[in-house]
Amino acid sequence: MSxxxxxxxxxxxxxxxxxFMKEKSRYDIHVSKHYFNYKVSIVIPECASLPASxxxxxxxxxxxYRVRDLPIYKLLEGEFLEKVVKKGQFYALSYNTRIDxxxxxxxxxxxxxxxxxxxxxxxxxxxxGKPSQYKHRKVMRYVVTIDLTDKLMSPGAKRYxxxxxxxxxxxxxxxxxxxxxxxxxxxxxxxxxxxxxxxSFEEHRPTLHTNTLKEMPYPSLHPSDRHGDxxxxxxxxxxxxxxxxxxxxxxxNEASSFLSTYGCPDPQSLMSHGLLCTVTGFLIPEDIYxxxxxxxxxxxxxxxxxxxxxxxxxxxxxPVSWGTTEHGxxxxxxxxxxxxxxxxxxxxxxxxxxxxxxxxx
Amino acid sequence: xxxxAAFERLVYKNASIFHYMKICLVLENGRRxxxxxxxxxxxxSGLRQLYGEVGAAFPFDLLKFDPGTLTGMLRVYxxxxxxxxxxxxxxxxxxxxxxxxxxTQVSPFLLxxxxxxxxxELDQASFTGEKPLLT
Lengths: 361, 135
Hints:
The complex is a heterodimer of chains A (361) and B (135). Chain A has 361 residues and is of the alpha+beta class. Chain A contains nine helices and 15 strands. Helices cover 21% and strands 32% of the residues of chain A. In chain B, helix 1 packs across helix 2 (81-89).
């Protein structure tokens, strides 16, 4: 059989091991730079129910809005631009657009607008952009990145006028947007609600599901493990186990079983019960960071388990993964990260991306 | 209390030895109950038809199968992904009934299959003024 048939596209997994208390650890930056998050799932072995403190943090997660057919230039005009977009803590991503097929729009909290558009739209827009890094032979997709905080983009400036004209007259891009802002109505003067009221919109709360895991094997992990140590299982096997738990896949198969030979990786222990909790929606990094802080506090009191895990999945159709690193979709658009938090405040951070992605930070 | 760990950072490139696929069997006359073993046998016969006995002689796991929705999750070694995927694409009938296999998601990480944002459906949900209760 031709060796070409046995090749697979590239994937990357970055594994960082450190301690939360260390000044130089950059876990907070990795969380804050992963802007568009779809799902958070928490696995806590030997935990019967969701602790009230964690439930409280999840209940305080930001609501998000789905606005239908919003012309993009409206978010770039006057008060909205000055009081909301430029102030930071404003997140927007086009809803139901596919990064490999459709035009995708994103507003980053750093005050940048990302337009990931096909060739025709790019030529009609007339804005300065770059060809997508993930092209085959011909360039079919372009990425326009506009720093709205740049003084050359201040209202009245030539570049700003050109941007508004492009999006208002030449190519009036309208799409459904998911919007979330950490600013309160008092802080931004009710400008967001004012804009939303002019269009059809719905407010959504992140949805929470909890599941109790019963009598199942789980990997034993030791924070002091270095690369090559045998005490803990390989990171790929661990992430596979997390996936199996999240999707209720049985891990007690015989090696000779016809259907599946999947088993929990060694070394393993048996948990009498455990918690699987998932939160889904348009989740912002600030909320995820506060959840992570609360999960670290789980070990303030003695617990049977020595570790717990939090996985955060990014939107597969987001134009960026971490920061402004371009993200694409080839066979899959995975861009997720996983924290394993230990009793002694050590952590392992796994960050994974697919083929059309830069290396995680 | 254990000593805090020293910093370590490793980058693994193409280190996952498996690929995972989320697939769905679509039958011409609508859904019916099929057992997991029958579903796996259907895939194996598809592989044999396309690649022969020797070509199809590689293992894959049916990690999970839902007989109601006919959705399944497969695990295959990287070297078998292309052959498995092509065989799934060309499966055309099951017990003399026309069918097709839809590949919903493929990833080198099983965990990625549990967080597909393309499944986010907001059309039926709406804000009623109350926060959702914990379930």
